[in-house]
Amino acid sequence: MALISAKTILTSLCLFHITLAYFFYTNPNAIADQALVWVLGEAMGMPETASFATPSAASSFLAIALLLTGLTDLLTLSQPEEIWLVHHWGAQAPLRITLFAALSLFTYFSTPSYGRSGASRMSHPLAPPSTFMAGSTVGGGDGLRNRVFFTFAFLEFLSWFWVWVTLKEESARLVTRKRRRGSASNGRGEALR
């Protein structure tokens, strides 16, 4: 039996997306300055980015996308249990696990087009050189290779894996409960005849 239900995990994840949307819209630097973002970024050699220093068009777009994702996901939880538990999230969770695992791996394994930094005592081998300018022109993949994106994709991967494991357990319990109710109603119907 799961300690926390799938509905509680999904609700928390939806509220997390809505909260992230608020911060990406008002103060994206608050997200970039989080300790977890710094620790994961340092451990994985992800470069810092100045893109989140102030709100921009891209961070506002991201905020709206996260807000819509959070609200629509929250809305699915108001459907009957069988629909959201078995049919909707039973398909969505594995898809999101795969998507965020691929994004995390892409971010980690891709080498930025601006090259590796020079060797020094305090530099990570994949960190950007000190002459790299955050606003300079880089490829599309380089824009994703930063601490904030890696932390987001990695935490989403872990969260959706947790949701999927809990969903499998709860959907098996739901199917067992439906079978028991079905066999109990069949047994009572035959006894009345």
SSE blueprint:
Blueprint: H1 6-26, H2 29-32, H3 35-44, H4 57-76, H5 81-109, H6 140-144, H7 147-192
Helix pairs in contact: 1-4, 1-7, 3-7, 5-7
Oligomer: single chain
Distance between the termini: 39 Å
* Beta-strand percentage range: under 5%
Order of helices and strands: HHHHHHH
Mean pLDDT: 83
From the helix content, strand content and strand pairing, which structural class follows? mainly alpha
Q: In one word, what is the shape?
A: elongated
Q: What percent of the residues sit in helical stretches (DSSP H or I)? A: 55-70%
Q: Report the sheet with the most strands, covering strand number, pairing sense and barrel closure.
A: none
**Low-pLDDT regions:** 115-123
Number of strands: 0
Gyration radius, rounded: 22 Å
Output the number of helix runs: 7
Task: Give an overview in words.
This protein is mostly helical and 193 residues long. It is built from seven helices and no strands. α3 crosses α7 and α5 packs antiparallel against α7. The longest helix has 46 residues. The radius of gyration is 22 Å and the shape is elongated. About 5% of the residues have low confidence.
Quick overview:
70% of the residues lie in helices and 0% in strands. The protein is an all-alpha fold and 193 residues long.
List keywords for this structure.
single chain; 193 residues; mainly alpha; 70% helix; 0% strand; elongated
